[in-house]
Specification:
heterodimer, A: 318 residues, Rossmann fold, 14% strand, B: 429 residues, alpha/beta, 30% helix, globular, EC 2.1.3.2 (chain A)
């Protein structure tokens, strides 16, 4: 099948596990064009004029929500944010009823973030607007996976054959899982490292390499993706202290030097500087952390554009 | 009042009987089995091509009454049992209030007399309020009719209390039934810990949590010389521990459920809350070990763990959904489809596991077609193909991981005390 025939129109984006390679490629290619719009002086095209998007966020988020909001607005759509604290959710409304309410207002796309794994799948099952998963618990965060791959491909020119190290709290990370599915599909080699208490048992069965020592994962890597470590995990006793974590798993220049000289350093944000990543690495020459944010916007523009139009001309109305 | 079941294949493990014959019921009791019995004065049921078995005994049912009638009540639960070929069911005490006093045991038995379609036996709680702190009035409950003692619903982690519960219950000749999962290891787990949970990002309930709890239970049963029954065994480690214990002569029995015997954790990949259950559906290696354990007698009985919930309780995010689903109306079909028609088990073995063995563990008068036994009978069409339609269930709990599945084999009639309570899938009372 040629790429021309790949259409994401009307399709939910729930996770990279369910996505095909041609679908991933179409999004990455479309994001390339979108990136051009972000750099324009007047960042507004009429493509999605008349379309409405609701950001339905049951969990705190700054960058992802803002990114989706701007993505929709740059493309001319109407975007409304609903946060759980400000909605009827606090009054004890069920997820089904919240979704029905949003649906009844004629919304075209629901961008949803929720603390429970499978919440996006549930939304797709019960509601008719297109669902874009903006993070469901520790399950998936597909647009983050896509923007990470976009960033890698943009610099390295390819994904196939890249050695990507993902370091940190794999267990609680939806970013890790979307990266794993996406990267494996695109032919990259994935190495995981982090405390064994934060590494899911049996994850090697999907084809990733698991290391106890972060140094082993970094050895010869093309990309080092550093995950945020949440202090709350320490409070649950999954590692003894922040300083010990930083000493054993923190990515500093000495560790980064084990990777290829031109290895990229990535982080989905927000960072705990001095904990999982040292400031010199975070702001160093190899860091593409700022670029990730920009690419995130491009990916979300691409995702919204493709699910709403199927991929027609970007410059005209839908 | 005579009823003659004519020309069916009569299978009774307690008499090693397995041949085409007639069965005569008189005054609610099995009168005789034999070829070409006289039809004089009897209502005749043509059982040609059908199997006649002692009615099934489900030793693990949540009837939810009192207090949780949105999920199930005695009327709906016993109808579901009748529809599934069950003639006796034992109900678990995790109701609201908990069945931890004789008066509640008596109350359920009384209600079951009035509203029940099949025989109901009551299992009393081990600890007051199932709080795991102090013994419930176990003796009083048993004297009022309780047939076993259990804190099922969750594990009883307090070793000392579990030991005392075993000691005390054993005085009355009843088993303690254990839901064996170590709570601290289960933590916030919502599914089996394995490759599927690893990539769904959901917290796992590791099989080792079950292994440890089963090991503890067995050691204390051995120490106190008490009768222990392990509910819904789901891990291969537990199977092996029970096997070894039986070899040593420990008085331990065990059950497996139709779902643990036939489904894996792949069933929750779509976050289907109808497949959420404790202990969880595990990976294929565990399922294989369960089938092996059922075959070699390590696992004595098949029980459903029928655990109905209301629509809205399961219509929720997976991690928040309560564990359990309906089992009475699918059990036989699932077992015949996956265990009998695949050639893994004989009908005699299945009937033994679903009727004779659980009756024997609970020490109740059921599970046999001997002359003089209550005429509690399941009539089965092993070849009937049907599609599971949860919306047509008699139980109030419409959730099942087997929904829309095509099964082969079904109870087509159920007789309790000589009277039809179900015919052609319809409960008739």
């Amino acid at each position: 099948m040629s790429k021309r025939q790949i259409s994401l129109r009307g399709k939910d984006i729930l996770g990279l596990e369910m996505m095909t390679v041609p679908e991933i490629e179409v999004i990455l290619e479309t994001a390339c064009q979108m990136k051009g719009i972000i750099d324009r002086d007047i960042k507004k095209v009429p493509t999605l004029r008349g379309k409405s998007i609701v950001n339905l966020f049951f969990e705190a988020s700054t960058r992802t929500r803002t990114s989706f909001e701007l993505a929709g607005k740059y493309l001319g759509a109407d975007v409304v944010n609903i946060t759980a604290s400000a909605s009827s959710v606090t009054k004890g409304e069920s997820l089904r009823d919240t979704l029905y309410t949003v649906e009844a207002m004629g919304v075209d796309v629901i961008v949803m973030r929720h603390e429970a794994e499978g919440a996006a799948q549930y939304a797709a099952n019960v509601a008719s607007p297109v669902i874009i998963n903006a993070g469901d618990g520790a399950h998936e965060h597909p647009t983050q996976g896509l923007l990470d791959m976009f960033t890698m491909k943009e610099v390295k020119g390819k994904l196939d054959g890249l050695k990507v190290a993902i370091v940190g709290d794999i267990f609680h990370s939806r970013v890790a899982r979307s990266n794993i599915w996406g990267l494996l599909k695109m032919g990259a080699e994935v190495h995981l490292a982090g405390p064994k208490t934060l590494m899911p048992y049996y994850i090697q069965e999907v084809g990733v390499h698991v290391h106890n020592r972060v140094e082993e994962a970094l050895e010869g890597a093309d990309v080092v993706n550093v995950l945020r470590i949440q202090r709350e995990r320490q409070h649950k006793g999954l590692f003894p202290s922040a300083r010990e974590y930083a000493r054993i798993f923190g990515i500093n220049q000495a560790r980064l030097d084990l990777a290829k000289p031109d290895a990229l350093i990535m982080h989905p944000g927000p960072m705990n500087r001095g904990l999982e990543i040292s400031p010199d690495v975070a702001y160093g020459d190899q860091s593409v952390i700022q670029e990730q944010v920009k690419n995130g916007l491009a990916i979300r523009m691409a995702a919204l554009f493709l699910v709403l139009t199927g991929g027609k001309n970007i410059e005209t109305t839908a | 009042m005579k009823l003659l079941l004519k020309g069916g294949t009569i299978i009774d493990p307690t008499q090693n009987y397995n041949q085409v014959a007639d069965l005569l019921i008189e005054n609610g009791l099995v009168s005789k089995i034999g070829e070409n019995l006289s039809t004089t004065g009897a209502e005749v049921f043509d059982a040609q091509g059908l199997v006649i078995a002692p009615g099934f005994v489900d030793m693990h049912v949540h009837l939810r009454e009192p207090g949780l009638e949105a999920k199930e009540d005695i009327a709906s639960g016993t109808k579901a049992a009748a529809a599934g070929g069950f003639t006796t069911i034992a109900c678990m005490p995790n109701t609201k209030p908990v069945v931890d006093q004789a008066i509640i045991v008596s109350g359920i038995l009384h209600r079951a007399q009035l509203e029940g379609v099949v025989n109901v036996k009551v299992i009393g709680a081990l600890s007051k309020g199932q709080q795991g702190k102090e013994l419930a009035e176990i003796g009083d409950m048993i004297l009022s009719g309780a047939v076993a003692i259990s804190d099922d619903g969750s594990s009883l982690d307090n070793n000392r209390l579990f030991k005392i519960g075993l000691e005390y219950t054993s005085m009355f000749g009843c088993p303690v039934i254990s839901h064996a999962e170590d709570e601290s290891l289960v933590d916030e787990g919502v599914m089996h810990e394995g490759a599927v949970s690893a990539m769904l990002g959901m917290k796992g309930r590791p099989s080792v949590a079950e292994d440890i709890a089963v090991a503890r239970d067995i050691m204390l049963a051995e120490y106190t010389d008490s009768q222990l029954h392990i509910a819904h065994v789901s891990s291969k480690g537990a199977v092996e521990l029970i096997r070894q214990a039986k070899k040593r002569g420990v008085k331990v029995t065990a059950e497996a459920t139709p779902h643990h015997l036939t489904l894996t954790d792949e069933a929750v990949k779509t976050f289907n809350t109808a497949a959420k259950v404790n202990p969880p559906l595990r990976s294929a290696d565990h399922v294989a070990a369960l089938l092996e354990g059922l075959k070699d007698g390590t696992l004595d009985a098949i029980a459903t763990d029928h655990a109905p919930h209301a629509f809205e309780e399961k219509d929720i995010e997976f991690r928040q959904a309560p564990p359990g689903f309906a089992g009475l109306e699918t059990a036989l079909g699932v077992i015949l489809t996956e265990l009998y028609h695949t050639g893994k088990f004989t009908l005699v073995e299945i009937i033994e596991k679903m009727s004779t063995a659980p009756a024997s563990i609970l020490n109740i008068e059921a599970g046999s077609l001997k002359a003089g036994a209550p005429a509690d009978i399941a009539i089965i069409d092993t070849e009937l193909e049907w599609t599971v339609d949860s919306s047509a269930f008699y139980t109030k709990g419409k959730h099942t991981p087997f929904d829309k599945k095509i099964l082969k084999g079904k109870a087509v009639a159920t007789i309790v005390s000589g009277k039809f309570v179900m015919r052609k899938g319809k409960v008739c009372i």
